[in-house]
Amino acid sequence: MESILESLYHGNLHPDENVIPDDPQYSILRKRTSEIIEVWKGRLSAEQFDELEALLDLYGQTHGMELAASFKYGFRLGAGIVVEVLIGEEGLAGRLSAFPDKAESS
């Protein structure tokens, strides 16, 4: 079994693919969402349904970006907490939002 560092090095860490909510409501809501999409598929013309799917795809893309941003913030927060505990400097965790991503600052 690979260590976390080995998995990171080999590109085998994919938290976005491995995280599934354990809230019992999650599977119920996913099933209901699928059912409602099927209802709309029956109500709309093929062209209209394609437009609805395009809208849902855009929502999925923006939601994925929000999840990535939350993941980065949470990771930075956790790392900041560890650093703060280890070096005894307070306030690091609160300054995390002051560190913009390189992609955002270019």
Offer a quick outline of the entry.
Helix content is 72%, strand content 0%.
Query: Total number of β-strand segments?
Result: 0
Total number of helical segments? 5
The assembly state of the depicted protein chains is single chain
Spell the H/E element sequence.
Answer: HHHHH
Poorly predicted runs:
none
Rg for CA atoms: 20 Å
**In percent, how much strand structure appears in the residues?**
under 5%
Morphology: elongated
Q: What value does the average pLDDT take? A: 87
The biggest beta sheet reads: none
* Computed structural class: mainly alpha
Share of helix among residues? over 70%
Distance between the terminal alpha carbons, to the nearest Å? Answer: 39 Å
Q: Could you name the key traits of this structure?
A:
106 residues, mainly alpha, 5 helices, single chain, 72% helix
Structure explained in plain terms:
0% of the residues are buried. With 106 residues, the protein is mainly alpha-helical. The chain has five helices and no strands. The protein starts with a helix and ends with a helix. The model has no long low-confidence stretch (mean pLDDT 87). The radius of gyration is 20 Å and the shape is elongated.
Question: What's the topology here?
Answer:
Layout: H1 4-9, H2 15-18, H3 24-43, H4 46-87, H5 102-105
